[in-house]
Design goal:
By secondary structure, the protein is mainly alpha-helical. The protein has one domain. Helix content is 83%, strand content 0%. The chain has 3 helices and no strands. It starts with 7 loop residues before the first helix and ends with a helix. It comes from Parapedobacter indicus. One of its GO terms (molecular function) is transposase activity. This is Putative transposase.
């Protein structure tokens, strides 16, 4: 198999095909890549996916904290306005 540069789209297509149940040897033949190359891609994208998931979890937790803080500030603001208007 020749050494060629493969773009990200082809890598993602290979990983998706594997996730959909297609055999690795069939994917490699179709894309003219070595099995080791496929497994390197898979390892790389698995790490990216895990990092992305971790970041998403962090952002969701931050969102919850900010919503709670916003709610508390709104209640304080309402209390101050009510106090000033009375």
């Amino acid at each position: 198999m020749n050494k060629t540069r493969v773009n990200e789209t082809v890598m993602q297509k290979a990983i998706r095909a594997s996730a959909d149940g297609k055999r690795v040897c069939d994917i490699c033949k179709e894309l003219n890549i070595h099995r080791n190359t496929f497994y390197l891609w898979k390892k790389k994208y698995q790490k990216i996916r895990e990092d992305g998931r971790r970041r998403l979890d962090e952002l969701e937790a931050e969102n919850v904290r900010l919503r709670q803080r916003n709610s508390a500030l709104e209640m304080n603001n309402r209390a101050i306005v009510d106090l000033l208007l009375s």
